[in-house]
Amino acid sequence: MIPTLFWTDGLFFLVLVMAGALVLVMRRREHFRRPWRTVSRSTPAMVSLVVIAVYLAVGIVDSVHFFPRADAAGSAAGANEPISLLDHWLGGLRTRTEKTYSEPFAAYAYAKEHLPTADGGQRWDYPRLTYGGAHLVDPESERVRDIAVTGVRGAGQGGLMWLIAAAGIAALIARSRREPIGRVVHRVARGQTPLPWRAMLLTLLLLCVGGGAIAEWSAHYHVFGTDKVGADVLYQTIKSIRTGLLIGTLTTFVTLPLALVLGLAAGYFRGWADDLIQYLYTTLNSIPHVLLIAAAILLTQVYMAKHEEAFASLALRADLRLLFLCLILGLTNWTGLCRLLRAETLKLRELEYVQAARALGVRDHGILLRHILPNVFHIVLISVVLDFSGLVLAEAVLSYINIGVDPTTESWGNMINSARLELAREPPVWWSLAAAFVFMFTLVLAANLFADAVRDALDPRRAD
Amino acid sequence: MGAASMPLLQVANLRTGFVQGGEVVRAVDGIDFQVEAGETFALVGESGSGKSVTALSVLRLLPQNGRILSGSVALAGEDLLQLPELMMGRVRGRRIGVIFQDPQTSLNPVLTVGTQIGEVLAWHGLRRGRAAVDRTLELLEQVGLPEPRRAVSAYPHQLSGGMRQRVMIAIALAGEPELLIADEPTTALDVTLQAQILVLLKTLQRDLGMALWLITHDLGIVAEMADRVAVMQSGRIVETADCKRFFARPEHPYSRQLLERLPRLSACRDHRDAGGDAPPPTLLEVRDFKVYYPVRKGVFQRIVDQVRAVDGVSLELPRGRTLALVGESGCGKTTLGKALLRLIDHNEGELRYDGVDLSRPGSDDAQRRLRAQMQIVFQDPFSAMNPRMLVGDIIEEGLRALRPEIGHESRRERVETLLVSVGLPPDARSRYPHEFSGGQRQRICIARALAVEPRLLVCDEPTSALDVSVQAQILALLVDLQRRLGLSYLFITHDLGVVAEIAHEVAVMFQGRIVEQGPTAQVLLAPAHPYTRRLLAAVPKLRCG
Amino acid sequence: MSAYLIRRLLYAVPLLLGVNILTFLLFFVVNTPDDMARMQLGQKRVGPEAILDWKHERGYDLPLLWNEGAEGTAQVTETIFYQKSVGLFLFRFGRSDQGRDIGADIRTRMWPSLAIATPSLVLGVTVNVSLALLVVLFRLTYLEFWGMALCVALMSVSSLFYIIGGQYLFGKLLQLVPISGYDGGRDAWRFLILPLTISVISGIGSGVRWYRTLFLDEVEKDYVRTARAKGLGELRVLFTHVLRNALIPILTGIVVLLPLLFTGSLLNESFFAIPGLGSYTIDAIQQQDFAIVRSMVYLGSTLYILGLLLTDISYTLVDPRVRLH
Fold first, then answer.
1. Cα-based distances in Å from B256 to B184, B244, B253, B261
2. Which ipTM was obtained for this model?
3. Count of CB contacts below 8 A, A vs B?
4. Which domain holds residue B120?
5. Does domain C104-318 have CATH number 1.10.3720.10?
6. CB contact under 8 A, C160 and A449
C-alpha cells in the first residue's frame, strides 16, 4: 500500500483545514459567535448540517488515495491505478459487475439471452445475474422475503449503531452541562435543548437505519441496479459525492482571492483602479459563462492531447481535469462577489469610523485589514455557502454538455448524461437517474437550507 | 351630554411589546391618557421611551414583531383594538390622520404627489374625478405649498424637505380627520423650517377644529404648541399636566430633570469664562478656504460647474477656546470640518496649524503627526466605531499608528487612564461598542480622539444624536476636558442652545460662507446679519401659549 | 440624457474590444491552430502536410498579428487577428471549421430560439411575480412557510431532471405532445408547449424566492406604513405601492436578458431538438468547432453589453428619481 496524493485531495484537505481554522478564529469573536449561535438553534439548518456532515465524511474517505499492494500480479488490469480508502471499503461493490443493465434488487438480467437448458438445448430467457441475488436458489419465491429479512437485519444494526452514538452524545451533553444523564435524555426527547438535538438525532437515526439496510442489502443485491456495462449504480452515486463536494468547495480558491483583493481595492481606492477592475469584471461577465467554460475545457483537451506524455495515468488526467474545471468555474464566478464587495467597501469607506481612523493617521493597509475586511467578511461567508449548491447543480449541466468532469470520473452529471436516453427503452431504465436524483437532491437541499439559515443569521439587514 | 363629555381618544392601560428571540420585550407598559376634541396634546419623552410605539399601537400599525398585549383604545367611545381589520381601515386616514417623522422616506418615491393625496380621497369615497383634483389643489394650498398646480404632478424627490412634510400633512388632512397624530413632525427638518411647519400645524388645527396629538422629544415645541402635556419615561407616563402648570411647577423628578437640562440662550459661556488675560495665541488659522465639488456633464464628463460647498472661509481659533460653527444642514459646515482634517481635499486657501502651513500636499511622517494633533468627534456614536473591534483596540488604534514605539503594557495603561478620564470604567476596554449606550459611546469616541494627545478637536454635532439629558453630560465632559487639557474645539452644530452653553465665539455659516462671526453673547443676543436673526427667531421659546 | 447614452455607447467599445482580444488569446495564442488541426484530424500520426492543408482551407495558416511576408497594409490584414477577430466587430463571422457560413446559420437559427425563449421569459416572470405576490400577501401564515419550503425543494432539483422528467411524463407516459422536434409552421405550438412548461416550472423555485425578497424589502419601508395609515386595504397597498416600487428592480433585471433571448436556451434546445442557436452552440462544442464557439462567445457578449445599455435606458423610464447625466 503506497499512499498517494492527488492535487484535488491535497486542496480539498487544505479547504477543510482552512475552514477549521476559520471556525477557531470565529469562536473567539463575539460578533461571529452570535449569528452562528442563531444558526445552531435553527432546526432545518442543523438537520441539514447532519446530512452535509455525512456527505463530507464520505468525501473525505474518498479523498485518501493509495496504490493497492504493488506485489500483486501486475498483470491485473488497473492494478497501477490508485484507489481510495472508500474504494477499498466498498471493494465488493466496485468489483461485482454484471454484464449489462439490471433492475434494483434484481436476480435476473434486464435483457433476454440464449441460455443452455438442462437437456442441452437453448432457450430465450432472462439469465440469472452473476452477483445480484446469486445466493438464492429460487428467486421467484425467496427474493421478497430475503430482501425484507436482510433489510430488517441491516436496519437493526444501523439502529444499534445509532443507539451507541446517541448515548455518547447524551453523555457528552450531560458532562458539559453537569446534569444527570437521565435528565438530558428526557430533555432531548422532549425537544427542550437549545440546540435542536432531537431533530438532529432523528435525522441521524434515519441515516443510520437506511444506511444499515443498504449496506446489508448491497452484499447480495445491486440496490440501485446496474448500468449499461453492468457496474453497480450505488457505487457510482456514492463515488459522485466527492466530485460534487470538490466542485462546490475548490472553486473558492479562485473566487475568494480574486473577489476580495479586487473588490476591496476597487471600492477603497476608487479612481483608475476602480475603473480598471470594473472594466475587467464587466468584460468577463459579458461572455456567456457556459461558453467561457466550454472554450476553456476545449483548450484543456487540446493541451492534454498535445502533452499526452505528461498525463500518463488515466486517474491523474481525470483529476487534473476536475481541478481545472474548478478553477474555470471560479474564474467565471468571482465577479458577482467582487461587485458586492466593491459596493460594500464604497459604503464603508465613507463611514465615520474609517474617517476617524484616517484622522488618527492609520495607513491604508491598516484600515483595509482592521476596518473594511472584518466588516465585509459576512458577505464572503454568505456568498460561499450560497454558491455551493449552485456549483453542484452546475456540474451536472456541464457534464451533460460534455464540458464538465472527465467522462471516466464518477459524477452525477455523468450518470445522468449516460442514462438520459435509456428512459426511452421498454421497460424504461430509470434507476441510474433515480439514484443520481436522490443523492444529488439530498445534498443540494441540505446545502440550500443551511445556506438560508446562514444568510438570515449573518446578514445584518435580515438579522433583526 | 354624555357624548360631549366623552374624550375623543381614551387610551387605558395600554401595554405593547415586541417579540425578540422568543421573548416579549415591553415597549409600552400600561399607560392611560386622553385627548379631548379640538385640543393639542403633547406626549414628550426621550428616544426609546415608547411614545412612537404608543401612536402605532393606537393606529394598529406596529411592525410585524409588535404585539398589543392588553388595554383599550377608544375613539369617541369605540374600542379600536376590538375592530376587525376591515373596519380599522375606515378609521385610519379617515378619522385619524398621521404625520411621520421623515418625509423623505414616508412618501412613495414613484408616485406623484397628486396620486398620493387623491388616493385617500378616492379610497374613503370623499371626492371623485374633477372634484378630487380640486380638493387636492385646495389641500396643497392649505398646507402652504407654493404653486400647487405644479406640485400635483411632481414626484417627492423633486420637492425640498419642508415641502415634502407639507405634502405629508396634506395627505393626513385629506380624510378630514378628527384627530391628527404628528410623530416628531419637525425633527428631520432644519430649524427655520421647523418653525414654519409648527406654525402651519397650529393654524390648521385651529381652523379645522381637530385634535392634535403631538409626539416630540423637544420641550421647546411643547411649550409653543400644547394645551396639555404627558411625560413618558421607559414605557410609562410619569406626569400628565396642563401645559402652563407643567412649565411653572413640574411635579415628577424626571420632568424637572428634563426642564433643567434644556439649554438656554441667555446663559452664554463667555460671561463665566471671561478672564482678564490677553487673548491666547492662535492655534488654527484658515484663510480663504474653498472646497468645490465638480459638476460633470456631457459625453466626456467635462467639469462644467462647481458646487461651492465651502466658498472662501476664513477663521481663527485661539488656543484653549471653543469656536462654534453654526448653520443649517447643507450649509457646508461638516465639509469644512472634514477638509480641515484633510479627510476631504480642499481646492484653495491656506491652513496654518500652530504656525505651520498644512495646506500643501505631502504626507511625510512629520506632517502626519502634526495632523494627528487635530482630531474629530462625529455626530452618530453608532457608526463612529467599528462594531467588530473591542473598545480597547479602538482607542489604542491611533497610538499604534503614530507611536509604534510605545509598548503593549503602557499602551494598555494609557487606554485605561483615558477611559477613566471620560468617565467610564477601565474594564470597558475589553467590551464591544454595541454593549454601550449612545452617551457612553460618545465618551469612547472622545477617548479615542484624546489618545493621540490632540490639541484641537473638531466636534461635528457630537450631541445632536443624543437625548437631552445625555447631551448635557457630554457637554459638561467637553468643557471639563478643555479646562484640564487646554484643548481647542471647533464645535459644529445647528443647535443654538448648545452654542450658548459651550462656545466662546460663534461663526454663522450660510451657503458656504461665514456671514457673521464674533463673541457668543454678541452674536446670540445682538445678531447683526439677517440670517442669524432668522435662525434665532426659529428657536422655540419656553413660553406657553 | 443623450450625452449619457452616448457615453454608455462609447463605453461599450472598450468592452467589445476586451472580449475580442480575450477570445483571440484563448483561441489562437494559448493554443495554436496547429493544435486545433491535430485535434480535429485525430491525435496521432498526422503528417505535417495534412495539418498545413487543414489550416490553409480555414485560413489559419497566417501569422497571428503581423505578416512579415506581405506588403503595405497587407502586413496587418493578412493575419489571423485581422481576418478572424476584427471581422467580428462587423458581425462577419466567417466559415465554421466544417466549412459552413456561420452568419447564415445564425440568421436562420435565431428564430426558433426566439420563439421558445421569449414566451418562456414572459410566462416565467408572470408566474413567478404572481406567486411571489401571493406569498407576500399571506406572509406570516402557514401558506408562506410551506410555499417557501416548496420553493427551496424545487430549486434543489437539477434542471436536467425537470427536462428528463417532463419529457417522460408528458411525452412518453401521457403522450400529450411530441417529446422533441420543431416545426416552423402552424403546428409549432405543439412542439413548443412542453419546453415552455418545463422552463417555467424549473424556474419557479429560485424565481419566486427572488421576487419575494424584492417585495419584502419594500414592505418594510416607511412609505408602506404611510399607505397603511391612509387606511388602504392590504391588496391595494401591495399592488399600487409595493409592486410599483419593486417593478423597478424587476423590470431592469429582465431588460438585461432581452437581447440574450436571441441565443436561446442551451439545455432546452438541445434536449428538445429545437434548431436554435442554443443547440447550435452545443453541437459546436461537442464537435469541437472552434470557429462557431468563438463566434457565439462574441455574439453572446455583444448582446449582453447591449442588455446593459438597455438596462440603463430602462431605469430612466421606470424610475422617476433617476435622471442620467
1. 22, 14, 5, 9
2. 0.88
3. 68
4. 107-176
5. yes
6. no
